[in-house]
Amino acid sequence: MEELAAAAAMSPYHFHRIYRIMTGEAPGETVRRIRLARSVSALAERRPVGDAAVNSGYATSQAFARAFKAVSGSCASEVRDQPALLDAILTDLRKPRRRAGGASSALDIEVISLEPLRVLAIRNVGDYAELNAGYERLFGLVLEQVEECELQGIYGIPLDDPRFTPASKCRFDCALAAGEAGRSAGGLDDRQIAGGDYVRLRRVGNYDDLHEAIDLAYAYAVDVLDRAVANQPLILHYLDDPEEIEDEQQLRADILLPLATGA
């Protein structure tokens, strides 16, 4: 750990945390994953499990077999005759495993340039766990003016942290992008989301549990990029419709944290 931290010009304490933020796994998990990936070639050649254990650096076949099954869900001795399954296991081992509620890999946290975006929005005040009613009202107001085929995205703008603000006072702007269609009317506001650099963290899991992932976006901006956060709210871009996805732990959302210019 000390050598890795030195190569990254960080203290071991900060390196461990930042590495986990960037990759979604601890350094030790990365080592184990890569060691197991090295074993697949021996299994593909139908060599003994002991050879695969040597390839992956495990001292005994039993230790390797336990580790392989824990990661892949399959017995090493059984997959040697299943090339397609071995390919799938190798593909999975080539990147950090996705965890519900967190970033799925290093590529899921990045800096993007966002064009200015016009949205139609309403302000919802109350428990963030009850936002469905706010979005139902929003869709009702927007679809009075805009054809459903013109809708270009579902967005949210949280203005409070529900961990520190009473649920009854939490403000949240429910928003829909519809190009140039629609206008302000009946509680519907015409808003402009500023363009510029944003930290984009793609998070997978229940939409009600976003705030720890939001913390990761802030940590990435400050600790990894050494960038200041812009004085404007972060944006949530909901990529899936909960009514169309059976497993709520597979819902995808982009957390978009604005970065200050000239930093």
Describe the structure.
Helix 3 runs antiparallel to helix 4 (49-55), helix 3 (27-44) packs antiparallel against helix 7 (83-93) and helix 4 (49-55) packs across helix 5 (61-72). This protein is of the alpha+beta class and 263 residues long. Strands 1-6-8-7-3-4-2-5 form an eight-stranded antiparallel β-sheet, covered by helices on one side. The two termini are 30 Å apart. It contains nine helices and eight strands.
Q: What is the overall silhouette? A: elongated
The string of secondary-structure elements, in order, is HHHHHHHEEHEEEEHEE
- Nearest-angstrom radius of gyration? 23 Å
Number of helices: 9
What is the residue-mean pLDDT, rounded to a whole number? 83
Total strand count, please? 8
User: Percent range for helical residues?
Assistant: 25-40%
Low-confidence stretches: 100-107
The structure class reads alpha+beta
Distance between the termini: 30 Å
In spatial order, strands of the major sheet run: 1-6-8-7-3-4-2-5
Main sheet makeup:
8 strands, antiparallel
Amount of beta strand: 15-25%
